[in-house]
Amino acid sequence: MSNPELFANFYQKEKLGFDIKIVEKGFATFKPFFSGATCLELGPATGYMTRFLINSFSAVTVVEGSKSLIDQIPAYNNLKKVNCLFEEFTPTEKFDTIIINHVLEHLQDPLAVLKNAYEWLSDKGVCIVGVPNAKSFHRLAAVKMGLLNSEYDLNSRDLELGHYRVYDLELLKKHMEQANFKINFESGIFLKFLSNTQIESFLDDKIVEAYFELAHDFYANSAEIFVIAHK
Q1: I need a labelling partner for 62 at 20 to 30 A (CA). Which of 15, 91, 92, 144 fits?
Q2: Which fold has domain 4-230?
Q3: Which residues of the chain form beta strands (DSSP E)?
């Protein structure tokens, strides 16, 4: 992974806008799949999801490469903060739930981290992995408009965030299976047709909520895709 501080400034809350709403919906979507009492979250940034996780588990560990980001996460009583690269993390315990959300696209070698996560997971634990989706309607529209040559091309926002690739469901499942995980469930979060700014400006809450719900039925083209996996 490249120097995480190079991209840390983007993850300040005031710059994310609608992305925060997607994280909140992501938590609500993931929650029914949580297992056990201990949770590991990779890449929490400033703790957008962590603030919910601490109420769902007796112990939460977060690993974040950026010191400037992890220092912004409050010192919750049941939270352990580890500032290091994922590749350098060496836990002495197994975790019942591992959440790897918006992480793999940032990694030069995502398979190495997934293989480590497999070893960190308890025998009956669950690993939840989510990524932005190349096949999202808004990226397919960008191709039709000539803004991207392919839905797999890195756009300006991908480059600003330090992404190495854009996943589709097939690649995500392939990487999970290569890391020995067994996938039990797959779905998506939010049908996105517009930019974040357009969504915030023109869509009311009722429409936004409907597009979150529709993503369960049309997840192959949702803004984000995720898998639920076990050993």
Answers
A1: 15
A2: Rossmann fold (3.40.50)
A3: 38-42, 59-64, 79-83, 95-101, 121-132, 182-189, 224-230
- Sequence-distant (6+) residues with CB within 8 A of 114 are 100, 104, 129, 175, 176, 178, 179, 181
Residue 193 CA: distances (Å) to CA of 175, 208, 217:
27, 11, 16
Q: Residue 224 pairs with which residues in a beta bridge?
A: 132, 189
Q: What is the pTM of this model?
A: 0.92
* Distance (Å, whole) CA 196 – CA 128: 25
Q: What DSSP letter does each residue of 85-100 carry, written as one string? A: -GGG---SS-EEEEEE
Q: Is 58 exposed, middle or buried (0-12, 13-18, 19+ CB in 10 A)?
A: exposed
The predicted-structure confidence for 39-93, as pLDDT tens digits, reads as follows: 999 999 999 999 999 999 999 999 999 999 999 999 999 999 999 999 999 999 9
Instruction: Look at phi and psi of residue 146 and say left if phi exceeds 0, alpha if psi is from -120 to 50, else beta.
Output: left
CB-CB contact of 137 with 228 (8 Å)? no
Tokens of 211: 């597009």
Q: How many CA atoms lie within 13 A of 170 on its CB side?
A: 3
Backbone angles phi, psi at 129, to 5 degrees: -125, 125
- In this structure, the dihedral spanned by the alpha carbons of residues 55, 61, 63 and 67, taken in order and rounded to 10 degrees, is 80
Tokens of 128: 């939840």
